[in-house]
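Budget justification note: compute hours in this period were largely spent on complex prediction jobs such as the one shown. Inputs:
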Amino acid sequence: MLEIKDLKSRIGDSEILRGLSLSVKKGEVHAIMGPNGSGKSTLALVVAGHEDYEVTGGTVRYNGQDLLEMAPEERAREGIFLGFQYPVEIPGVNNAYLLKAAVNAKRKHQGLDEVDAFEFLKLARERMTVLGMDPKFLNRGVNEGFSGGEKKRNEVLQMAMLEPSLAILDETDSGLDIDALKAVAEGVNALRSPERAIILVTHYQRLLDYIEPDYVHVLSEGKIVRSGDKMLALELEERGYDWLREAATG
Amino acid sequence: MKPSSLDIDRLRDVIRQLPNDALMPSREAALAHLDEHGLPTLRDEDWKYTDLSPLVDISNRWLLAGGQPRPASNRHGAVERVLGSIDATWFVIADGTIEQWPAGNLESGAIEVSRLSDTPAPFVMTRPLGDLNAALRHDGLRIRITGQPEKPVGILLADRAGGNAGVTQSYVEIEVAPGTSAELIEYHLSDGDEDHYANSVLTIGIGDGANANHVRIQNRSIRHVQTGRTSLALGRNATLRMASYDLGGGLIRNDIDIDLSQPGADVCFDGLYLAGEGQHIDNHTRVDHRVGPSTSSQEYRGILNGKCRCVWNGKAIVHKGADGTDAQQANHNLLLSEKAEIDAKPELEIYAEDVKCSHGTTVGQLDESALFYLRSRGLDKNHAIRVLTHAFAADLVRRAPVSAVTEAITDIVEARLAELAAADFIADILS
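Corresponding output:
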């Protein structure tokens, strides 16, 4: 589904990704771990199409297409979803409006009719209940005045409504208390399917207790320096990241 | 005669051809004043951002062609659309002539109407362009609201602009009697694409303990020049909720003057201006707090795209003795093009004690992170820009204090924002 080969990217003058390769297939859940500044968020943003990041080398293919040639909105309509580490507050734009506009943009791209407004709201309310969100959030401005945990739940709600083929969740666990973490994990697990892939970007192992990954990768200085199964995450939890960095440079 | 000045000789001829009615003495006095003082120029502090030569040019061409009002024609579609979309008791002043005067019972005596020429007053020069208005006006409208009308009272100032360049002067006085409540609409409209200059003077008196909600809409064509003054005076414990929407126009200058000379007055007024290529929209507001306590707050917002210029000058004067005044001002601007220019100028003059005053002004571009967020959800760039500009304007549309106009304003704002956001100029900051 996603084939990243030797990807190099920078923002301004700083090189962040320095030859990263990663292959993700349908049905898989990958966890990307690594210390601060190793390039985890950059990877997520480059795949989503953020224009501040210049790709200076390598290729990214998504379902056989050249992803780097696609605008961010085309990537979204083709089924890529990025759950932001810091969701943006957009006062004045109604949450329900955005959800519906997003779903309809994708449906139009797929040649489908717009969603029925009534059915759509019903579905949104159901999914909010699962996530422990008050339906009143539908009528608020996008993330406007939301707490950290509410913003992350809102990201998962958008994901649940958009039903992406490839979901990338950037530090969705950060700043969550245990109840919120469980609710978010439940939302993500509900989406797991043989047709879908999920990439979890996380600093801590904690999220992986609730969402069990098939693969764990460790990113350091813009490259994947170690890959393994979920046991690698436990090892990292115990030993930290320093030993990997030493292993990579030594 | 300087090319930049008004052709006073021809103006005199045109005035002398007007019917020799009760308004003639004040026309002559106004003309004498205009002849002596001329029009405001860029050297006047209050007019330094707004060059009036387009209105001089249109006026002189109109005078040269005989300075006649346009012949009455069939009512235009644009006028009918406004009357059909907003439920109000409408007075229509078309091309400077009072054309529609709601007949029969004006809501069981809640509204009294008369013509200015019935009880003419001598000319007193108060503000710039008032002399030009008084010199050329054919008549005026006086509306007194003495009860509680169920519908808003609407004044539609429409100019058809067909054929040659045209000039119209409109004059309306509204009085909201003590202890009553009224909703008012002031709608400036044009149709057609000929050059036109419209100059209006509207005074609104709000009696002791009365409440007025006033919406002012300017939806003129790009070829139209408008100078409009709306002067409001509030009585003791009177309240005013007002919002101005500048949604079209070529060269527009609005003056809003609010006089608070009785204690307990409470004023809240907002403004929204949307400007695209070739437009110039100047909003000058002035609040005089003459006694305390009284409160005024204003928020103006602008969205600008392409080569255009807007001015917001908000003046609040807290006179000596107006202790306990609370005056707040805010002006926020969204610039979608590097060619757009905004001159934002708050002015607070305080001569009293125990006063709470503040002002805040911002000028910014679209939030790039919000734009990416929306695009990452599948909205294309234009849609995302439209959503963000719309959100910026939406608060002020929602706050329209006359609910009968909310839908009409929403429709115009949406259409206008779609044009602005679709314009190519936007590329220069977002590529």
